[in-house]
Amino acid sequence: MLKILLIIVSVALIIVCLLQTGKTEDIVSALTGQSSNLFAQQKERGIDLVLTRITIGLGIAFFVLAILIRMGS
């Protein structure tokens, strides 16, 4: 039962990570010396905030399930 739940959480985590917007423009700007807002205080809003919170929750669930499965076997 826990293994099936771990697979579901893993697939959901992959999908949510792929749905998030990329931050590569900020990283490239920082490395090339172009003016960037990499260190500016920018808050996530809307769907980005929701996806970030879902990713954190799924990540925690993944590690908890992995530990529980390992301790059970």
UniProtKB/TrEMBL annotation:
The yes or no answer to whether the keyword Membrane is present is yes
Q: Which GO terms describe its biological process?
A: intracellular protein transmembrane transport; protein secretion; protein transport by the Sec complex
The highest taxon in the source lineage is Bacteria
One of the record's GO molecular function terms: protein-transporting ATPase activity
Coiled-coil region:
none
Which InterPro entries does its entry note? SecG
**Which Pfam families does the UniProt record give?**
SecG (PF03840)
Question: What are the protein's UniProt keywords?
Answer: Cell membrane, Membrane, Protein transport, Translocation, Transmembrane, Transmembrane helix, Transport
The membrane topology term of the UniProt record is: Multi-pass membrane protein
TM region positions: 48-69
Compartment(s): Cell membrane
CC annotations in GO = plasma membrane
Family note: Belongs to the SecG family.
Job of this protein: Involved in protein export. Participates in an early event of protein translocation.
Q: What is this protein called?
A: Protein-export membrane protein SecG
Organism equals Intestinibaculum porci
Gene encoding it? secG
